[in-house]
Amino acid sequence: MPNKLYNILVPVDFTARNKWAIAKALELSNTFNCNVHLVYTNGSTKNSTSATRSQETILRKLEQLKSLYSQQICGEGKLEISLLNGNRQKELSNYIEQYEMDIVVVGLSKFNLLHRIASSISISRMAKKMQIPVLGVRSSGLVCHYKKIVLPVSGELPMRQIRLAALLGRAFKSTVYFVSLRKHAEEQKDNVVDMALEFVQSISTIPVQCFLLEGQNLAKSTLEFSKKINADLIVVNPVKDLRLPGLWNRMTNKLLSYGSKIPVMTVAAPSGKQHSK
Q1: What is the rounded distance in angstroms from the CA atom of residue 235 to the CA atom of residue 264?
Q2: What are the angstrom distances between the C-alpha of 148 and each of 49, 168, 175, 232?
Q3: 27 in helix, strand or coil?
Q4: First and final CA of the chain: distance in angstroms?
Q5: Which residues contact 88 (CB under 8 A, 6 or more apart)?
Q6: Which residues contact 259 (CB under 8 A, 6 or more apart)?
């Protein structure tokens, strides 16, 4: 993780959910003085007349977004727009690597169940395959600042998540809450919560609190705890531990990022390929 944010990617498709993703990206831009990239991926690679017209229409819409939102950037950041052609995942992955994106912000639908499920799965896949933090935001999650950041821990020490939480915590003067299930803590030879506390204190002076939660499912207990303290952000790793319980949730791969009204930042464990800045 870098020590500051330089570039934020917002994939757009000109639907309503883009509005809150862009709003959150602009807020982060004004806090960290970083650039916001609005990117549309066109699955077609044809060179027909109709395809050319379609691209012209898309570019015109992107220009309209740039004109509308550029004036809302108060810091040193800039608003960039791009149209990509080809496979969405491949093109976005190339863009993330080429322009060194630090975070992706995506908007989540309010009502469409199938799209919300697809969004959750794509968030997890993007975070893991593209090795980049992905922030899912819905219309109810547009808090102005992240004063309370919840970070569930289980198993190995989540160093990437901790570094990101510390980065946001310094900027927003936040308190970070490490949470784990009591049953996990009792089973572990080394207490990962204590290890997380020691690590964050070694890299930052932000306030930290640790809690052992009751329950059998880390995602469910984390969500209940976050609601209780009125948390502003949950930072998670897209692993099996953070799937919500229940048959329907298992069938639909219902991750915490999909089941929470509180914004969730999904940060995958490193795979050996990371940007250095």
Answers
A1: 6
A2: 52, 10, 5, 5
A3: helix
A4: 9
A5: 41, 43
A6: 219, 223, 244, 249
Q: Which two tokens stand for residue 129?
A: 């395959």
Q: Give the pLDDT score at 216.
A: 86
CB 128 within 8 A of CB 35: no
CA angle at 126 for the pair 125 and 128, rounded to the nearest 5°: 65
CA atoms within 13 A on the CB side of 120: 25
Tokens of 48: 């027909």
β-strand pairing of 233-236 with 79-85: unpaired
- Measured between alpha carbons, how far is residue 189 from residues 155, 156, 194, 195, 213 in Å? 10, 12, 12, 12, 18
Tell me which amino acid residue 176 is.
V
Contact status, residue 97 vs residue 9, Cβ threshold 8 Å: no
At residue 252, the pLDDT reads: 40
Indicate if the pLDDT at residue 251 is higher than 60. Answer: no
Give the number of other CB atoms < 10 A from CB of residue 76. Answer: 11
pLDDT tens digits along 23-62? 999 999 999 999 999 999 987 666 667 777 788 999 999 9
C-alpha span between 84 and 82 (Å, rounded):
6
Tell me the torsion sign for CA atoms 92, 273, 121, 134.
Answer: negative
Beta strands in 56-206 (DSSP E): 79-85, 103-107, 134-137, 148-152, 175-181
Instruction: Using only the alpha carbons of the chain, give its radius of gyration.
Output: 19
Q: Residue 191: what residue type?
A: N
In 65-132, where do the E strands start and end? Answer: 79-85, 103-107
pLDDT at 89 (0 to 100): 86
Sign of CA dihedral 218, 256, 140, 65: positive
Q: How does the average pLDDT of the chain come out, rounded?
A: 82
